[in-house]
Design goal:
With about 290 residues, the protein is an alpha/beta fold. It folds into two domains: about 5-60, Roll (Spermidine Synthase, Chain: A, domain 2); about 65-285, Vaccinia Virus protein VP39 (Rossmann fold). The chain has ten helices and 13 strands. A seven-stranded mixed β-sheet has the order 9-8-7-10-11-13-12. Strands 1-2-3-4-5-6 form a six-stranded antiparallel β-sheet, covered by helices on one side. β12 (about 220-225) and β13 (about 235-240) form a beta hairpin. α7 packs across α10. Pfam families: Spermine_synt_N (PF17284), Spermine_synth (PF01564).
Length: about 290
Amino acid sequence: MDLIIDGWFHERGVLWPGQAMSLKVKKVLDHHRSDFQDILVFESESHGNVLVLDGVIQVTERDEHAYQEMIAHLPLYAHPNPKKVLVIGGGDGGVLREVAKHPGVEEIIECEIDEGVINVSKKYLPSLAKGYDDPRVSVKIMDGAKFMDENQDSFDVIITDSSDPVGPASVLFETPFYNAMYKSLREGGIVCTQGECMWLHLDLIRPLIDSIGKTYSTVEYAYTTIPTYPSGQIGFIIATKGRGECKKPERQPSEEVQDGFQYYSTELHEASFVLPAFARRSIFGKK
């Protein structure tokens, strides 16, 4: 499939049939195949530099904060005192950048299976990749499930920043992976994962939440709005081990930190768990 036609990048995915997202291309910066996937980086006319994996937009400089801030700060501010954080995926560095804004966090470990994503992000997405500069960060180029199996009862927060459940990322949306995260969590810990789109993927979201609800203490769905993701919305599955729900933050950012955010706030934290009626009924069976 040609990704760029007549100067426009076209995102057409199997998980959103019948619709597409297009961005005008100013310049292709990098296009190659890694050991795991097709990697494309281009400068767009209106959204800055754009990272595309296997034909699907992962990051644009214009709106990335709507995703990075929420997937990181929803679990981190819901935890009273996170010390050790694991990020699975997130090779662009954006989640690391946000986790590093929590001064109480002592150790941040990233497991990214494809080093090629890290390399192009450091070169072409420096505003995200600056997350790698924090001295608390260490990077493991390996399978996240294997790392968690070797590090059980270890983390206060686990954040899985994955691409869609196609290709190498498909296992990240299956119950065994959530069981692995549960075992790697400390008591009172929180996991937050990319949870797909309520407009498109309720058939994926509901069975997964039902399945992991048998293991985790609480399982919730929150969401953010982001223009360049399918249907302009992406969700987060937030689950806990030995503690209550995460709808109200346990901590709040300082005024200085809040001034640096472009999307997250304490008010939005709570609001992000309020779902449209159709989604609430479909995911949780509640009227």
